[in-house]
Amino acid sequence: MSRIAYVNGRYVPQREASVNVEDRGYQFGDGIYEVVHLYDGRFIDEDRHLDRLERSLKAIRLPMPLTRAALSHVLKEVARRNRVTEGLLYMQVTRGVAHRDHPFPAQPVPPALVVTVKRIKPYPTSIANWGGNAITLPDLRWKHRDIKSINLLPNILARQAAKEQGAVEAILYEEDTQVVTEGAATSFWIVDEQGAIRTRGLSHAILPGCTRGALMAELQQEGIAFDERAFTLDELKRAREAFITSATSFVKPMLKIDGAPVGDGTPGPVTTKLFEIFARHVKGGAKNAA
């Protein structure tokens, strides 16, 4: 069966899908994207992702391409037409098609919207074989990392460097302060020397991860304390546990960083507990009903 994409108002075979060469997303990276996990036919944390999409679009002065209800319908229809119940849905909004010039088009043009979906492996049943390794790199991205821009070249280079060193993620840090920001494509957490669960607080320095926010809400319901407080590379090296969160990583333990084991080099008890809590959120939360 051919994969179906939604492109600017039409559902088309993905192999035939195309955008104009003067689309500002192609020319300038002038756009926003979102990725949503689809589990058992349900979009996980759909409202969080659409909220973030609206915030990012507003930050770059770009209107929503459709009403929220219409966009939600398109997302579900793309999944339905592709018969995908376990996968990742990608949506991208750009400032549309206009003659190449850095300022916004003099005459407003309709935003461009593309939606695709792909199948992925089932949600992991156990944390035992879910861990990975990471490297650390200076954070070379722009200063508005809270906007989910399609400008991802620094992230790509960081992820490629990680891959070349046999790692799954690059943990980024500010060169001047040695303070950790986040992963190249994930939120990053540690369990510090004192046993506190820590991740950096929201600001322009990091993306407000939807999985991050959903996990925090679950922890609050469970009465588990966490601390939105920055930490340095030195504190990271002394951490008992470390893990990443994202729509594709869920809660994923980092077992080695820069070749050195984190704790004893196995998934720690705190990360294991959080993995189990988030698995329940994905698999059974009423708030995730379609």
Folded structure, characterized:
The protein has about 290 residues and is of the alpha+beta class. It folds into two domains: about 120 residues, D-amino Acid Aminotransferase, Chain A, domain 1, CATH 3.30.470.10; about 160 residues, D-amino Acid Aminotransferase, Chain A, domain 2 (Alpha-Beta Barrel). It contains seven helices and 15 strands. Strands 7, 8, 9, 10, 11, 12, 13, 14 and 15 form a nine-stranded mixed β-sheet that branches. Helix 5 packs across helix 7. The radius of gyration is 19 Å and the shape is globular. The two termini are about 25 Å apart. The C terminus is likely disordered.
Keywords:
single chain, 290 residues, alpha+beta, D-amino Acid Aminotransferase, Chain A, domain 1, D-amino Acid Aminotransferase, Chain A, domain 2, 2 domains, 9-stranded mixed β-sheet, 6-stranded antiparallel β-sheet, 28% helix, disordered C terminus
Mean pLDDT: 96
* Number of extended strands: 15
Radius of gyration: 19 Å
Q: Indicate the low-confidence ranges by residue numbers.
A: 286-290
**Basic shape:** globular
CATH H-level homologous superfamily name of the largest domain: D-amino Acid Aminotransferase, subunit A, domain 2
The gist of it:
This protein has seven helices and 15 strands. It is of the alpha+beta class.
Question: How would the blueprint of this fold be written?
Answer:
Elements lengths: L3 E4 L2 E4 L10 H5 L2 E9 L2 E2 L2 H14 L8 H15 L4 E8 L17 E8 L12 E7 L14 H12 L4 E5 L6 E4 L3 E5 L5 E3 L10 H13 L4 E2 L4 H5 L3 E6 L3 E8 L2 E2 L7 H16 L6
Parallel strand pairs: 7-8, 7-14, 11-12
Antiparallel strand pairs: 1-2, 1-6, 3-4, 3-5, 5-6, 8-9, 10-11, 10-13, 13-14, 14-15
